Backbone:
């Protein structure tokens, strides 16, 4: 039996893992020797589980619900996806500020009371949805004009 | 990867229901080409973030006394003498680190979406190669999410964990870069093949009507039972970029400054002249800062604040650039470090250890190199923007040097130890 058959991949595959994994293992051992090692493991595993088994299935399920959404025959799912993603990803990144989770600490170190993050995030969300709705409105008007001119709209034909 | 012999194929048939069955994943867009396209852009992003991250580690000059946060004995020998100019150097590298980092998050999410069927491959380990590769992939994805999560938390001063951020973020980066290197070696041939087979950028030009699934392949990314497309491949990348744009818009103003600062709706530091740490937070004894008690200790001699003000004062516009990604440029007035080295009797000093009135914390002292001391613009600042420093900005005196991380501009300076 050849090496590739027994191992399951080329020798380069094995070599890459054998050469570089020890460096990663060294770093893991180092960080586990500092204070809060348990939290490092918790965060590492929680990040994987939360993303792969919670976040991704959740947004996939949501996406499946609105995939068939149409307005006057025109699919609008991408007019939902773009503002929803912009809203969600800004919340995902800035939720500590938006929900005031680090307010106390920030005020303590900087002397300034963080304020207005929730309001400004909502502004950003509103702007994203408004922009998307505006583009949709333009598309709908164009589709009507095309129809008036007697041509079937390509989206509707599809 | 791995050989999909008859045995494996039979195992796939007996896979548990749900995501372990190939037919479960129906997106017509998934496939080696899309993963390659997202992967290339993601790679460019994480390369910038990783390089600037390790540059930041070097900019702290951990080889100088008292500067290391990751103990030198347990560090990689990758540091070098960080130059003291141009003045905006650290603002640039760290601005890239934080902002490109933010912009890369949607690309990471898109990339993980594109490869999610692989998580549920059945059987979970079909060969030794697949086993070791899945271990490396777990390290890669886990460390990527860990690095972004901790970096984003640190930017916002949110610390719901017991570990030291710098230490964990640093070693996490070593894990990430190692696992990424393995991943690239393993996947490069697949990426090249996917690119060639689908005609390079050609799928980006397809309209929705022309968007076809990639043919099912051994890797299990392309769907065996695809649904009808609802978005083009160009659209998927555009969606990720829209997320990147929103994050940049929300934050980049705190790095670039000027009128953009007020546009940065979600930036943690929206003030024109932020304070990294107040005198209160640093537990500075206010009595020790009063002109009648405070003296600058230069080793052999000490100077009152009035004596310092009577020296040759210089005015320099210099930025403070924080590791968290914000920068602010102000006009500082003070005595050149070079001149103070001469007064201390150590002209041409090799290094200086700056000690603060601050009694606790890693940043109560820092050591500056000869480059920083000799730079014309390096000052012990007494005034800023035409007025005395405020207590929170380091009164009675603070260091301001070009090109270094903000925290090496030590505030409430009590002592300068110049060494030849």
Residues:
């Amino acid at each position: 039996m050849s090496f590739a058959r027994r191992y399951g991949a080329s020798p380069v595959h094995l070599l890459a893992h054998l050469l570089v994994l020890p460096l990663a293992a060294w770093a893991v051992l180092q960080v586990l020797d500092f204070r809060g090692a348990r939290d490092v493991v918790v965060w590492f595993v929680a990040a994987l589980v939360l993303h792969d088994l919670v976040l991704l299935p959740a947004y996939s399920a949501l996406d499946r619900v609105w995939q068939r959404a149409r307005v006057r025959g025109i699919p609008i799912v991408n007019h939902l996806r773009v503002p929803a993603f912009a809203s969600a990803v800004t919340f995902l990144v800035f939720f500590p500020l938006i929900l005031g989770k680090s307010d106390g600490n920030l005020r303590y170190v900087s002397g300034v009371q963080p304020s207005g993050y929730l309001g400004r995030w909502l502004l950003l969300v509103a702007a994203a949805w408004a922009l998307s709705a505006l583009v949709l409105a333009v598309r709908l008007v164009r589709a009507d004009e095309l129809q008036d001119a007697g041509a079937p709209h390509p989206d509707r034909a599809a | 990867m791995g050989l999909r012999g008859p045995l494996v194929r039979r195992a796939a048939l007996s896979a548990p229901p749900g995501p372990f069955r190939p037919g479960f994943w129906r997106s017509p867009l998934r496939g080696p080409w899309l993963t390659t396209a997202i992967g290339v852009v993601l790679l460019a992003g994480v390369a910038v973030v990783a390089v600037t991250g390790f540059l930041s580690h070097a900019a702290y000059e951990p080889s100088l006394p008292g500067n290391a946060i990751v103990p030198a004995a347990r560090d990689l020998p990758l540091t070098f003498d960080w130059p003291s100019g141009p003045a905006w150097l650290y603002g640039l590298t760290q601005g890239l680190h934080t902002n490109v980092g933010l912009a890369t998050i949607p690309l990471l999410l898109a990339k993980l979406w594109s490869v999610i069927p692989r998580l549920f491959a059945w059987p979970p380990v079909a060969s030794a190669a697949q086993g070791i590769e899945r271990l490396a992939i777990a390290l890669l994805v886990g460390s990527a999410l860990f690095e972004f999560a901790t970096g984003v938390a640190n930017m916002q001063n949110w610390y719901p964990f017991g570990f030291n951020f710098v230490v964990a973020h640093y070693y996490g980066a070593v894990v990430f870069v190692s696992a990424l290197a393995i991943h690239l070696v393993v996947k490069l041939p697949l990426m090249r093949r996917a690119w060639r087979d689908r005609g390079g950028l050609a799928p980006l030009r397809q309209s929705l009507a022309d968007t076809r699934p990639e043919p099912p392949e051994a890797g299990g990314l392309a769907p065996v039972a695809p649904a009808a497309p609802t978005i083009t491949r160009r659209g998927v990348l555009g969606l990720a970029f829209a997320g990147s744009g929103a994050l940049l818009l929300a934050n980049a103003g705190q790095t670039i400054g000027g009128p953009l600062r007020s546009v940065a709706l979600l930036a943690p530091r929206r003030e024109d002249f932020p304070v990294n740490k107040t005198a209160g937070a640093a537990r500075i004894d206010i009595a020790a800062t009063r002109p009648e008690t405070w003296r600058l200790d230069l080793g052999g001699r000490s100077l009152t604040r009035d004596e310092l003000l009577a020296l040759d004062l210089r005015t320099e516009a210099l930025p403070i650039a924080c590791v968290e990604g914000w920068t602010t440029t102000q006009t500082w007035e003070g005595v050149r470090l070079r001149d103070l080295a001469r007064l201390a009797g150590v002209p041409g000093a090799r290094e200086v250890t700056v000690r603060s009135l601050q009694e606790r914390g890693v940043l109560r002292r820092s050591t500056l190199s000869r480059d920083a001391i000799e730079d014309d613009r390096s000052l012990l600042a007494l005034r800023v923007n035409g007025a005395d420093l405020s207590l929170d900005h380091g009164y009675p005196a603070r260091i301001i040097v070009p090109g270094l991380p903000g925290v090496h501009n030590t505030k409430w300076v009590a002592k300068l130890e110049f060494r030849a």
